[in-house]
TrEMBL record, chain A:
Keywords for this protein: ATP-binding, CBS domain, Nucleotide-binding, Transport
Cited PROSITE patterns: ABC_TRANSPORTER_1 (PS00211), ABC_TRANSPORTER_2 (PS50893)
InterPro entries with a match to the protein in the record: AAA+_ATPase, ABC_osmolyte_uptake_ATP-bind, ABC_transporter-like_ATP-bd, ABC_transporter-like_CS, Gly-betaine_transp_ATP-bd, P-loop_NTPase
Lineage of the species this protein comes from: Bacteria, Bacillati, Actinomycetota, Actinomycetes, Kitasatosporales
SUPFAM superfamilies reported in the protein's UniProt record: P-loop containing nucleoside triphosphate hydrolases
Protein name (database record): Glycine/betaine ABC transporter ATP-binding protein
Superkingdom of the organism of origin: Bacteria
Membership in a protein family: Belongs to the ABC transporter superfamily.
Gene Ontology annotations of biological process type: glycine betaine transport; response to osmotic stress
Pfam families: ABC_tran
TrEMBL record, chain B:
InterPro entries: MetI-like, MetI-like_sf
Record membrane topology: Multi-pass membrane protein
Entry annotated with the keyword Secreted: no
Gene Ontology CC annotation, any one: ATP-binding cassette (ABC) transporter complex
This protein's record includes keyword Transport: yes
Residue stretches spanning the membrane: 33-54, 100-122, 129-147, 153-176, 197-223, 276-294, 301-324, 344-363, 423-440, 446-465, 472-493, 583-611, 623-640
Protein name: Glycine/betaine ABC transporter permease
Family per record: Belongs to the binding-protein-dependent transport system permease family.
Molecular function GO labels: amine transmembrane transporter activity; carnitine transmembrane transporter activity
Organism this protein belongs to: Streptomyces viridochromogenes
Alphabetically ordered keywords of this record: Cell membrane, Membrane, Transmembrane, Transmembrane helix, Transport
Cellular localization per UniProt: Cell membrane; Membrane
Amino acid sequence: MRTPHTPPHATAPPRNSASVFSVRDLWKVFGPQADRVPADKQLGALGATELRERTGCTAAVRDVSFDVRKGEVFVVMGLSGSGKSTLVRCLTRLIEPTSGTITIDGEDVLSMDTGRLRELRRHRAAMVFQHFGLLPHRTVLDNVAYGLEIQGVGRGERRERAAEFVTKVGLDGMEHRRPSQLSGGQQQRVGLARALAVDPEVLLFDEPFSALDPLIRRDMQEEVVRLHREEGRTMVFITHDLSEALKLGDRIALMCDGRIVQLGTPEEIVGAPADDYVRDFVRDVPREQVLTVRSVMRPALADEYEAGPALDPSATVHEAIEAVARTGANARIVEDGRCLGVVDHVGLLGVVAGIPATTGKAVA
Amino acid sequence: MTATVTPAPPRRASAPDTAPGALRAFVCHRGRLIGAGTVAALVLGSLLLGGGSWPASLAVDLSGPLDRTSDWIIDNRDGHPLFLHFLGHVSNAVVISVRAVYLVLLALGWAGVTAAAGLVAWRVAGVRPALTSVAAFAACGLLGMWVPTLQTLALMLVAVAASVLLGGLLGLAAGLSDRMNRILRPVLDTMQVLPAFAYLLPVVLVFGIGVPAAVLATVVYAAPPMARLTALGLRGADAGVMEAVASLGATGGQRLLTARLPLARKELLLGVNQSIMMALGMAVIASVIGAGGLGDRVYQALAAVDVGAALAAGVPIVLLAVVLDRVTTAAGERVGAAPAHRAGLRWAVALGVTAVVAVAGRLSGRLSWPDGWTADIAPPINGAVDWMTAHLYSGVPLVGGTADWAARFTAWVLDPLRGGLQWLPWWVVLLTVGALALLIGSWRTAATAVLAMAAIGVLGVWDPALDTLSQVMAAVAVTLVLGVALGVAAARSTRLGRVLRPVLDVFQTMPQFVYLIPVVALFGVGRAPAVAAAVVYALPAVVRITAQGVRAVDPAALESSRSLGATGRQQLFQVQLPLARPALLLAVNQGVVLVLAVVVIGGLVGGGALGYDAVLGLAQGDLATGLVAGAAIVCLGLTLDRVTQPTERRDLAGKGA
């Protein structure tokens, strides 16, 4: 794995916060005698087709390491077959990893016994699935209460708590419907409420909105953003949709063939692709909407400290363009009343045109 | 996106990847290989083995040991610990529970039973099935068959309860454990293709003729579908739901009780439905071994060729079958719908009304169906049959009579077929069986088929078995011609399909035994009526499977052929039928299995052959003859199933079940 580009200016979560999940050297290999693949450096380095021919095995997750920090939305993104769904299932051992270590709050997940693991799944990490996984014979309310039911919470109490979460996800009045009577978006709201009802430390999302229509998908994404803003719960979000990843993620791990090819903030992924694969991936992203002015500013000249519109360092290039176009002057980047630098039309147009910035790095 | 979760199977993947041409070449090659092998074997065989029936030197006479076993069992039934401590208890438990259920039904009185049936149907299935069941029970009473109906019902209820329990447990084991599934599945598959008649003799050997034997035969016959469907349902649980349940930290028990079992409710109810229908069919056939009730009335009447009396007992059987099927099917269709408002209250109402009606019936002193309220339909029916005998049997201008048809069918089709089969050297028969099974199935099915056929010879019933086989072949040929034609027509014309569907529904629910009544009325006794009954019995399944297969043909393929300007005939022969090939093969297989079941029962109406041996063995207490015939029936069933068993059959059957 490439070293993650440690962000010098990580956005949402405070940098010193502890990690919830900590994953090191994780492998998941399917097939006969899967153990030998991670153990053998030579086999581990083979491509997917070659590995299958040589051993009959498929490596879904290859030597992956990352940390999920408390309170952040950690997005794992990749095309289908890249191993991202397997990866998220390894976190709670819905799929048993082949080798490596996973810890949650410092506790080793792989050495947990059945009881402890059950405890982890019941209280600490709840998952939302692409195809919802609702029980068709139960009402919405009983589906939401299901997690509490298997924890042994009494009927009255669990229904009361479930009703609260049904309201929270906006399904008021549908408590007594069956999943088959709901639309896809509504079903996924039930899935979300079911996960929230057990009050988990981490929410795991496995492509939760891929099966939904674009408009409903946007609604649901906003719902997640809202929930995260309100509760600050740690989230691990799997998706194959780049715009979804950029919209929701505090940090994004981009996977290809079981490996993480780049891990960083949306801005880093778009602004500094680690290799051609990532570059190809982010080619069509409207970069001016992702990159911040901090990455394209240049040092201010003596006469520029006072003139022109002032912008926050976290403002997007898109906003800067608007400011520059409106005023006709270069924009100043101001933090705590101090001018960090300026952006001019050359730098801004460079971003839009996709020409590597020559100015930014020196300042940071 | 779940591609990462399922690892690609390493070896199997490569086969379809290679050009389909190679596959076809292999199949053709295989066909030629089998042909060449057969010719070589024919030449070799005619040189070395000669012709004729199964050689006596290769047959084993089992009547001695079987007689001794049977005698030993009869002698020890009251003394041996096995009987005292195990089988005796089983037998007693069966007798007591059947008796108890019967007494409860009697105590409810006719009004109570009818009300209970109606209200239960109302609660589980809805208003229309409820009305149907009330009408059906009233009709049973009107026909003067109240007491036999209750007897059959009591026996069936006990047998169904036992087979649902037994089948459910077996299905649970097979559904949860892969190893149990591997062990049970071939056994259940095989049990499913054996004719009902074959189950009677072994239980009689152990328990003697009577209610215990009848109930146990019914349980053994009715449990496999429950077990199969339970296992199917449990195995088919939505993986996504099961994963979600696991992700919430459910224990194994919670996963089973709150997710896996509820998810399989449709299959479980279908299993109960199938169990009930099989149990009814068997409870009627088991009259031959002392089940009493409606089946016994039919059996006695058929023995006396009294069609009117047979019909009077047969109609209640059909009504019971229709009611039970409708109610359980409707209950199955309700699964998944939102529960009714205040379900508990409605159940209480149903219970209360039943109690009130039962008590009212008791107080009015009319527990049994009032004698004055019956209509004896036997004389008018017999009158009609006499008229038919006089006017339709023979000598009708131009078309001839039904008896003429039967005679002609026997003389022109059955006799030459039987003669031909029996003339064929025995090894040629084995060779044909093997080659056919190889062509359609795999070497494994071929080996089973040949071994089973050889076993018939070893048992010393080669000639009667070929007699049965000739009837089966004739019936299957007629069934397939009619069935496929009707099926294709029903698939291509929505109107015909809609007309045919309720007819098929009723026909498919009727127990095999009932089919003997009308054919005896029309054709008298003999082999031709047995064949006719078999055709009528097997036809609905063949029509249905064919129609489904043709209808399931990929619409895109059909549309593209239409866009190229194919005529209706071209579409049928070049697209629909070739693509429906798996369904057609399944139809053949089902047709053969169903036909055999009835041809064997045809022994009761003069079909002769193996069925007659089995009946004779039962009737005269000559168990050795009966058991040998029964074993031969099993072997013939296995042979016929394996010969017609396409390799993909399992998948199709799994979906269809």
